[in-house]
């Protein structure tokens, strides 16, 4: 971008931020009805433009219409409906008990809007991951500046149109562009920053936020493992894993990243995985490439990254059990299953974020825990087992943002579960009430009666009585 254009953009960002800063003070007093009107207007726009959302996602990476409806549009509408249903309850002050030492006083938590917010969203679910945090920001009474990914330009353009048609500029604004746009925005002292993307960029966002002591929600990623125990239902497990992995061509932050299969069932399980791929996408090769139900890799750069991981694994001894076909011209990569995988391969240390699924075997449950704990804490962990001991052992000895038992990724759809990672895979929680709280300050309020306070017993000067009382307090309450 030319210096002149950068200068103009900087002015626009400065002006918009100041506008939001002033408007955020007014929004602190916004009522449930005012916030609900904005959410309802957003909901109606989405319903009216469902076809446009499908077109934009297909233009960006040939995302199937059914996947768009389920993983983009439905999830956003569900989030709006949940907020509208619960907004009154979420906004109400929450009473808390006081200890006996504060007898006569009352206390409560007041949820106040943090103020200005910045939402930086990725390309893999470019509509849903931009609008879901926006719903939380509006519900909490915040302003929002959005920065969608430049890698999904058609969806970004549609989001810009949505913002212009639904919101006033001092409520919600959107800036498109490359990394320099995000850099300019991150220099501003936002009250809250909500970022969804890679751990690498998450570190950059957190460093920028630290300069202004802005609070953050970081929805990142990682290598989400899948454990297939020897007593698992193989058909059920294979069906669920194939859907969760190859939906969106594997470009999902909570997609199964690698499989850990008990050595006694690996052959029949892989045969069932192959069978399920055929059922969902067609037979190997050209049939899958022609399938309207299978998405493409987002761009050439990411296709090359996936090809590099695949080549490195094969060079170091991995075998292709299924798939492996590619077409760089249309960013196609066939669903691919790798066996004979070792820790020496890059694919076991980098988040794959594509339709390649490495398979490793195990015999001892402790080996599972060791492998998982040797890597950064994942965003999700999946266990297929009917053995409660196995489930409890894995849950107790590993850490992850979320867990599904006998299923994959569907915990994301539960409105009453917090969604987020741990350390490398994320900071903070989102969705529903958790999203509302992410954009809210939980303000502690204590109200004391006039003329009363237990602190009077400890006002200076400190004499014999005060010392006796303090010792008594330590004895009783210490």
Provide the β-strand percentage band.
Answer: 15-25%
Q: In DSSP terms, counting alpha (H) and pi (I) runs of 4 or more, how many helices?
A: 16
Which structural class should the secondary elements be placed in? alpha/beta
Strand order of the largest sheet: 10-13-14-9-8-15-16
Question: What kind of sheet is the major sheet?
Answer: 7 strands, mixed
Shape type: globular
C-alpha end-to-end distance: 63 Å
| Poorly predicted tracts of residues | none
Assembly level: single chain
The tally of strands reads 18
What integer value in Å does the Rg equal?
26 Å
Helix fraction bin: 40-55%
Summary tags:
46% helix; single chain; oxidoreductase; 478 residues; seven-stranded mixed beta sheet; globular; NAD; alpha/beta; Ald_DH/histidinol_DH; 16 helices; 17% strand; 18 strands; six-stranded mixed beta sheet; Aldehyde_DH_NAD(P)
Give a structural overview:
With 478 residues, the protein is of the alpha/beta class. Helices cover 46% and strands 17% of the residues. It has 16 helices and 18 strands. The chain has helices at 3-27, 32-48, 50-61, 65-91, 128-140, 153-166, 179-186, 199-212, 234-246, 266-281, 286-289, 300-315, 365-373, 388-397, 432-438, 464-477; strands at residues 94-96, 106-113, 116-120, 143-147, 172-174, 192-196, 215-219, 225-228, 258-262, 319-322, 326-327, 332-333, 336-339, 356-362, 380-384, 402-405, 426-427, 440-447. It has a seven-stranded mixed β-sheet with strand order 10-13-14-9-8-15-16, with helices on both faces. It has a six-stranded mixed β-sheet with strand order 5-4-3-6-7-17, with helices on both faces. β15, α14 (388-397) and β16 form a beta-alpha-beta unit. The N and C termini lie far apart (63 Å). The mean pLDDT is 96. Keywords: NAD, Oxidoreductase. It comes from Litoribacter ruber.
């Amino acid at each position: 971008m030319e210096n002149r254009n950068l200068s103009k953009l900087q002015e626009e960002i400065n002006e918009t931020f100041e506008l939001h800063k002033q408007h955020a003070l007014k929004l602190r007093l916004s009522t449930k009805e005012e916030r609900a009107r904005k959410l309802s207007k957003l909901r109606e726009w989405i319903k009216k433009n469902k076809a446009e959302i499908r077109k934009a996602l297909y233009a960006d990476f040939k995302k199937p219409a059914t996947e768009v409806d389920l993983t983009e549009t439905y999830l956003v509408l569900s989030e709006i409906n949940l907020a509208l249903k619960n907004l009154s309850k979420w906004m109400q002050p929450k009473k808390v008990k006081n200890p006996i030492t504060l007898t006569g006083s009352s206390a409560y938590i007041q949820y106040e809007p943090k103020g200005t917010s910045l939402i930086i969203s990725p390309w893999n679910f470019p509509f849903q991951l931009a609008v879901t945090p926006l719903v939380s920001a509006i519900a909490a009474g915040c302003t929002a500046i959005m920065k969608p990914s430049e890698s999904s330009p058609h969806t970004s353009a549609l989001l810009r149109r949505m913002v212009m048609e639904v919101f006033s500029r001092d409520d919600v604004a959107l800036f498109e562009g490359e990394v320099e746009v995000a850099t300019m925005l991150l220099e501003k002292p936002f009250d809250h920053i909500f970022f969804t993307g890679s751990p690498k960029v998450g570190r950059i966002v957190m460093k920028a936020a630290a300069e202004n002591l802005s609070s953050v929600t970081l929805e990142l990623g990682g290598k989400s493992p899948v454990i297939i125990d020897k007593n698992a239902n193989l058909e059920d497990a294979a069906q669920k894993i194939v859907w969760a992995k190859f939906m969106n061509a594997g470009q999902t932050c909570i997609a199964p990243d690698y499989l850990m299969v008990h050595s006694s069932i690996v052959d029949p399980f892989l045969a069932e995985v192959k069978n399920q791929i055929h059922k969902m996408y067609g037979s190997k090769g050209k049939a899958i490439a022609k399938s309207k139900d299978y998405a493409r890799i987002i761009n050439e750069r990411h296709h090359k990254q996936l090809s590099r991981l695949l080549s490195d694994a094969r060079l170091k001894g991995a075998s292709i059990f299924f798939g492996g076909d590619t077409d760089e011209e249309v960013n196609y990569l066939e669903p691919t299953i790798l066996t004979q995988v070792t820790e020496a391969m890059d694919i076991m240390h980098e988040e794959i974020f594509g339709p390649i699924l490495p398979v490793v075997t195990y015999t001892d449950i402790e080996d599972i825990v060791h492998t998982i704990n040797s890597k950064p804490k994942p965003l999700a962990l999946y266990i297929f087992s009917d053995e409660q001991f196995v489930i409890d052992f894995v849950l107790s000895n590993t850490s992850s943002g979320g867990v599904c038992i006998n299923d994959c990724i569907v915990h994301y759809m539960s409105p009453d579960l917090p969604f987020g990672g741990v350390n490398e895979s994320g900071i903070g929680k989102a969705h529903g009430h958790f999203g509302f709280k992410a954009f809210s300050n939980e303000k502690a309020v204590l109200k004391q009666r006039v003329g009363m306070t237990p602190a009077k017993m400890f006002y200076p000067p400190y004499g014999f009585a005060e010392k006796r009382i303090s010792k008594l307090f330590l004895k009783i309450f210490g």
